[in-house]
Amino acid sequence: MGLTSQSTGASVLTNDLVIEHSSDEKIIALAGNPNVGKSTVFNALTGLNQHTGNWPGKTVASAQGKYRHKDRSFILVDIPGTYSLMANSVEEEIARDFICFGEADACVVVADATCLERNLNLVLQTLEISPNVVVCVNLMDEARRKKISIDLEGLSRELGVPVIGTSARSGKGLDNLMDAVYELAFRNASSLQESAAACLQINYGEAVEEAIAVLEPAVKKILAGRLNSRWLALRLIEGDISLLESMRKYLNLDLLNDDNIRDNLAKARQILDETGIETNSLRDMIVSCIIKKAEEISKKTIFYLNQHYNSTDRKIDKILTSRIFGIPIMIALLGLIFWITITGANYPSSLLANLLFSLEEKLTLLFTWAGAPDWLHGLLVLGCYRTLAWVVSVMLPPMAIFFPLFTLLEDLGYLPRVAFNLDNYFKKACAHGKQSLTMCMGFGCNAAGIIGCRIIDSPRERLIAILTNNFVPCNGRFPTLIAIISMFFVGMAAGPMQSVLSTIILTGVIVLGVIMTLLTSRFLSKTILKGLPSSFTLELPPYRRPQIGKIIVRSIFDRTLFVLGRAVMVAAPAGIIIWIMANINIAGSSLLSHCAGFLDPFARLIGLDGYILMAFILGFPANEIVVPIIIMSYMATGSLLELDSLSQLKELLLDNGWSWLTAICMMLFCLMHWPCSTSCLTIKKESGSWKWTGLAFIIPTLAGIVICFLVASFARMLD
Amino acid sequence: MENKLIPLNCLPIGKKARVKELKSDGPIRRRMLDLGLITDTVIEALQRSPSGEPVAYAIRGAVIALRSEESSKILVEAL
Q1: Which residue from A68, A76, A70 is spatially nearest to A108, judged by alpha carbons?
Q2: DSSP 8-state symbol, A37
Q3: CB count, 10 Å around CB of A279?
Q4: pLDDT-based confidence at residue A54 (cuts at 50, 70, 90)
Q5: Which residue, A141, A389, A605, A635, could crosslink A167 as a Cys pair with Cβ 3.0–4.6 Å?
Q6: How far apart are CA A708 and CA A705, in angstroms?
Q7: Which of B21, B11, B30, B4 is nearest to B68 (CA)?
Q8: Which pLDDT value is given to residue A52?
Q9: CATH architecture of B5-78
Q10: Is residue A66 within 8 Å of A74, Cβ to Cβ?
Q11: What is the dihedral of CA A369, A373, A376, A380, to 10 degrees?
Q12: Which residues of B touch A315 (CB under 8 A)?
């Protein structure tokens, strides 16, 4: 079914966790709970010197980067953010395996200062595996703001490892962190032993300790110093199968084949049986002991100077997720973002269009002056340049406004509240609440949204989220929607009402997309992806003060320019191909007209025309180029006019038989048709099968055709 | 004086309770334990989502939303 994330087994007996490095480079693992600013630490240390990929054979993202400190090189490996190392999920298994078998020289565990007790769970579990740990207590600035005081030295004494306070967003404390890592990675054998002895050990109670003592010597003998024998002995006693598998895979070691271990394991289990501890309750006991230890340590080292340190967050939550206002506020916020985008993009868009199209005239003059043949001018200027100019002038301004605004919501911590507000609807659709988060990512780029579906643990619900992500219009489709709305639906209203009206219509289109997502999810859950919703826990992290400057830089460079660059790369060759199709004449009319003519009867049925449908088909590589293709095909067949404003574009469309119905169907089909080629390849990669990719292609396409057909027929009946 | 045990989803918003028993098992039980839901952990019901579910709880300094499928299997003693 392609549902398992298991690789093909080709990696058997090769330790693909070991990072390639030269002998003088040290490998540092970066662990931590989700939402603690781990990636901020990672980015702050490694800068642009990083590369990302997947963990071998798993659909879990990995990232590693290099940094230099005191003339030494370090490779920082970002391991998945987890709450625990008990291997309850793929992420936890990878995190544990890397700490155990990744041969890292040190491990940095990033913890959230405002929620330290909970983070200590992971810290304590990591310490059990390896004493080479530096605890990085991040978000110290937030803790100070909430009047939480943390005794870092006391914490270091309790844990027996260095503890460094940082505020990674402003870069504070990172030097100390690098110093601590440096010392840990370059210390000699004797101080290594000393620190191992100083490292905290959790007491699991008399019976369990006795059982560990029986088994540990046998384990120690066979391990020869490769792993912590006490920790491994306990895992053997509790029967951790996934760890045994990992040991076979990475160390080529089958512990249960060793007679000595088998005998002593039986003895150890007997001790527990006699005291009435069975496997299930043993697991509870182990977790409880760790959590109690974390509680004990935090009582000694964390001081809440203001008992109601979280009350502001709770007050905000009471409003943003309230019964009456929760969903209206959510839609209003979405609307506000669209309104700012539409209004703000208007002026720079026409400015850019003017600039770029006046440049086109200059280019034409240049071509004439150089005596270039007509076809070359047509190919490069009318084909390639004009498509590019459209894509840039229409896409860049909305993206440059939308992305920073959206990143702002992300940074504030609002998105998990969206998931919280909407979870019940997703539950009714037998889907996962976190699907709304992946839909939010889809606003930027559906391919990104599809990759984002990895945050959903259950394979069935992840697949549903992947298959329906395309119902959220990505930024390649946004400008098309905005342009059509501005041309056809707000002309009737005057003044400031215009942009409000556009916003309402656009928000309506998005809400329709959300409804389609829910309906389709439910349909899939009742048919080919039968199943009940799996367990769901969602953390609502503290609200954080965003860093405006960083948001702008990050969203412009990471997202806007990246997405624009990709669109330009597709648009340039596409422009050339379309110009050729529009200008090669066979039997009196162009190739494009022939194709469009063939599609026309069907396209008319769904309220479009042959050229529009053709444009959507040719726009498969990227949705951004759909409108330029329409313009070019109309211009090639009709009169040539200077096209530098939306009103002229509207005239062109009206001349070619557009009505408000065409505009509506165009918008609906834009919202619901096949995913772009990048998304399709991503779906193939994430779902592992062409079957699911095909389904992801068919579902929105069918929905679009049916709905457009109904709307068009209904409108014709009214006429 | 022993208080009566109630499932967590019956705990009124704004009230605190002490965790007494986890009835779930397998991976869900482990997930609940990882959240810090061990015996005698104090937990507070903070907020319902607009449609009534899920409910956000304060658990050991973190805010976690649980659906009733999970919270009904956590038995608590109201404080």
Answers
A1: A76
A2: S
A3: 12
A4: low
A5: A141
A6: 5
A7: B11
A8: 63
A9: Roll (2.30)
A10: yes
A11: 20
A12: none
**Which residues in chain B are contacts of A323 at CB distance < 8 A?**
48, 50, 52
What single-letter amino acid sits at A285? M
- Secondary structure percentages of chain B, helix, strand, coil, to 5: 20, 40, 40
Whole-structure pTM value: 0.80
Which of A117, A118, A326 comes nearest B50 by C-beta? A326
HSE toward the beta carbon, residue A65, CA cutoff 13 A: 17
Q: Tell me how far apart the alpha carbons of residues A47 and A168 are, in angstroms, rounded to a whole number.
A: 12
Element (H, E) at A278: none
Of the candidates A697, A661, A660, A695, the one whose C-alpha atom is nearest the C-alpha of residue A677 is A697
Residue A95 distance to chain B (closest CA, Å):
15
Indicate the residue type of A690: W
Token pair belonging to A183: 């010392």
Structure token digits, residue A476: 């390649």
What is the per-residue pLDDT for A657? 85
- Alpha-carbon dihedral A310, A311, A316, A322, rounded to 10 degrees: 110
Q: Contact B45/B13 with Cβ under 8 angstroms? A: yes
* DSSP 8-class letter at A79: P
Cα–Cα dist A101/A274, whole Å: 34
CA-atom Rg of chain A in angstroms: 30
**Could you say which of B35, B56, B59 has the minimum Cβ distance to residue A420?**
B56
Could you tell me which residues come within 8 angstroms of residue B69 by beta carbon, excluding any fewer than 6 positions away? A533, A535, A536
**Bridging pattern class, strands A25-32 and A106-112:** parallel
pLDDT tens per residue across span A74-85 = 888 888 888 888
Burial of A5 (0-12, 13-18, 19+ CB in 10 A): middle
CA distances to A20, A60, A61, A484, B33 from A95, rounded to whole Å, are: 18, 11, 12, 48, 19
| The pair of three-digit structure tokens given for residue A247, joined into one six-digit string | 């040991």
Strand B62-66 and strand B5-7: the pairing is unpaired
> Residue type at A372?
A
Whether A639 shows a pLDDT value over 60: the answer reads no
Tell me whether B75 touches chain A (CB under 8 Å): no
CA-closest candidate to residue A183, choices A169, A162, A208: A162
Q: DSSP label at A161? A: S
Residues of chain B with Cβ-Cβ distance to A114 below 8 Å are 61
- State the average pLDDT for chain A: 82
Residue B36: which region, alpha, beta or left (left: phi > 0; alpha: psi -120 to 50)? left
- Say whether the peptide bond before residue B54 is cis (omega within 30 degrees of 0): yes
Cβ distance A541 to A35 under 8 Å? yes
Q: Which of A492, A466, A432 is nearest to A687 (CA)?
A: A466
State the sign of the Cα–Cα–Cα–Cα dihedral A205, A207, A211, A213.
Answer: positive
Strand blocks (E) in A261-333: 302-304
pLDDT tens for residues A660-716? Answer: 889 999 999 999 999 988 788 888 888 888 999 999 999 999 999 999 999 999 988
Q: What is the ipTM of this complex?
A: 0.93
Question: For residue A513, what pLDDT band results from cuts at 50, 70 and 90?
Answer: very high
pLDDT in the model for residue A4: 31
A435 at interface of B, judged by CB pairs closer than 8 A: no
Partnered with residue A50 across adjacent β-strands are: A65
Q: Is A443 on the interface with B (CB under 8 A)?
A: no
Annotated domain spans of chain B: 5-78
A81 touches chain B (CB under 8 A): no
Condensed to tens digits (0 to 9), the pLDDT of residues A423-462 reads: 888 888 888 888 888 888 888 778 878 877 877 878 888 8
Rounded to whole angstroms, the Cα distance separating A256 from A269 reads 14
Distance (Å, rounded) from C-alpha A4 to C-alpha A468? 20
pLDDT number for residue A47: 75
How far apart are the CA of A539 and the nearest CA of chain B, in angstroms? Answer: 4
